[in-house]
Amino acid sequence: ENYLLGVGRADCTGPVAEIPLMGYANPDQVGGGLLMRLYSRAFIVADLDDCKRVVFVSADIGMVSQRLRLEVLKKLKSKYGDLYQQDNVILSGTHTHSGPGGYFQYTLFWITSKGLIRPSLNAIVNGIVKSIDIAHQNMKRGRLFINRGTVENSQINRSPFSYLENPASERSRYSSNTDKEMVMLKMVDGNGQELGLISWFAVHPVSMNNTNHLVNSDNMGYASYLFEQEKNKGMLPREGSFVAAFASSNLGDVSPNTKGPFCVNTGESCDNPQSTCPVGGATMCMAMGPGNDMFDSTRIIGQNIYMKARELYEKASQEVTGPLRSAHQWVNMSDVSVELNATHTVKTCKPALGHSFAAGTIDGVGAFNFTQGSVEGDPFWDEIRDQLLGEPSNETKTCHKPKPILFSTGEMTRPHPWHPDIVDVQIIAIGSLAIVAVPGEFTTMSGRRLREAVKREFDSHGMPRMDVVIAGLCNVYTHYITTYEEYQAQRYEAASTIYGPHTLSAYIQLYRGLARAIATNTVQDLSRGPEPPVFNIGNVTLVPPLTADRVPANKTFGDVLQEVRQQYRATEVAEVTFVGANPRNSAENAFEHNFLTVERHTSTSDSWQVVQNDASWDTRFYWTKGFLGRSNVTIEWHIPHGTEPGVYRIRYFGHYKKKQSNNHAVYIAFEGTSSAFEIT
């Protein structure tokens, strides 16, 4: 054995209804149920004498926000003292676009998330901390193995015309305009018992598109689900100790929608530099995945990724050995001087978003028409709108050229700054593996340049043959990072490169500095940098308040409104509708609530055995809000091939909110059960 290892997984789903989903920036895309639960997966590696430890967390969320990271670090400090700090803990988001939003302190993100939503933020903070707790409590002596391989048929570059702006001499060194390589770290304990794995692969988890309202972890989460189901044999989803994280990488311009962009209205291709259609323009141009619908595409892409991971896992033989090191700095990214060469120095800019930001991408068309209506007359949101329409300064305009500025966020400060200035840069080295934690979405070529620069830096300071992997969406969200050449084309990714044309060069300079410090053992001499701010924010939100739940006449919570059929065959859908209550009641009152079970009848013992729950891929939980506090819940079970014949039933578990005479509210648990049905 070379290390002490611990793995942990904990639920971080949060409220599955009425909260805007984070990713497509579409304010109409709010949660309305659950397809798969979201998890935080934590991995701790310590050396055998336990002087040094490092933590990598991959969470099924859109991205890690600064507020989220600061609150997690604060909780870890109160529990563990100085054991887990900003330098040795990486928090990474998978970048699913179907998780609840509202966990940001910078104002820009409030617009589409409807503010700062405490229950959403708390669920993620608590889930991440709990996953680290579980890993911490289960440290064992063990070994690490690394493997890498190519994943086919799972990605396309969604800004190929920007990619072509990169020098031909550079492009000719690569066979593809996406990075197809998966890097995998396998963990086993001293007795050869399998603990878990981390896979890094660059693709956007946007197989589920912006019409989806069910909370889920998309293609990457489905890959985790398949791997964990396979290794935790005979267990329900969310049970079992094996943890499989499928983490993000330099996915900035990479889409899983492999059929490419088509006009939704006419069916013709819109693979052109403007991603626009002859009728209806850019709003009609959408990329299609390989499946019949978004669920099917999620399954196909997730399965591809899982199959490759399984092969790499089984064959992994290259052992990782060597010391653990970590380096971290906070940097004011709006003011970095970059030495391009001996004579030429350039600077980064105050953050700003360009016009194409509002257009969105072929994976999700922009819906950023915030200036229209919806919150007229609310002075708080009116002030936000007035700032949105403000003019950028000449300095910012010049700095960002050729970007036409839409929102000069670096110059908007009310009620709080709109975008971060202080950003984390961080590298953790586990023996020969260097994990470069980046605060956003690096494009394919940006990631290649960064990896190469970091590797070269290690090489030239006595650490040859390092495996350098990029972990995406870590620590704080700063949108996209394109190359200088891609920036000139000003498509969506470039318009969202918020610190200007030299953003990538600045990051390369900073990460080289971290690599050099690790290689020369001078991490203690790195400046800590300026600490990020924590804004004092109450619950500022447009999410409707929880009201008392009500039932139709002569009905009670959990009553069946629409019954199942008596008989089904595999591949059919069993469906039942109940008198429901707001699922937010449950999220705010039970840490690990399960909304549903599918149960099979065992005649020998006359009992019911749970075979599926709300974390199962085959179950879907829909919540429909009615008038005056009424709501319905519909549960679907998509009966998989190979389901054992027999008698089954579906159950629903919820909480309703009731006002008491003293005006205090109580939350009361209830359940509902379908009739029994037969699978033949």
UniProtKB/TrEMBL annotation:
PANTHER family in the record: CERAMIDASE, NEUTRAL CERAMIDASE
The organism's place on the tree of life at top rank: Eukaryota
Name of the protein this chain belongs to: Neutral ceramidase
Record key words, sorted: Hydrolase, Lipid metabolism, Metal-binding, Sphingolipid metabolism, Zinc
Domain Neutral/alkaline non-lysosomal ceramidase C-terminal: 512-679
Binding site for Zn(2+): H95, H204, E441, Y480
InterPro entries: Ceramidase_alk, NCDase_C_sf, NEUT/ALK_ceramidase_C, NEUT/ALK_ceramidase_N
GO molecular-function terms, A-Z: metal ion binding; N-acylsphingosine amidohydrolase activity
A biological process term (GO) from this entry: sphingosine biosynthetic process
Record has Translocase as a keyword: no
Family to which the UniProt record says this protein belongs: Belongs to the neutral ceramidase family.
Catalytic reactions of this protein: an N-acylsphing-4-enine + H2O = sphing-4-enine + a fatty acid
Pfam families assigned: Ceramidase_alk, Ceramidse_alk_C
Enzyme class: hydrolase
Domain Neutral/alkaline non-lysosomal ceramidase N-terminal, chain residue ranges per copy: 3-509
GO CC field: cytoplasm; extracellular region; plasma membrane
Annotated catalytic residues: S255 (nucleophile)
Organism: Gavia stellata
Cofactor-binding details, from the entry: Binds 1 zinc ion per subunit.
Cofactor(s) required, per the database record: Zn(2+)
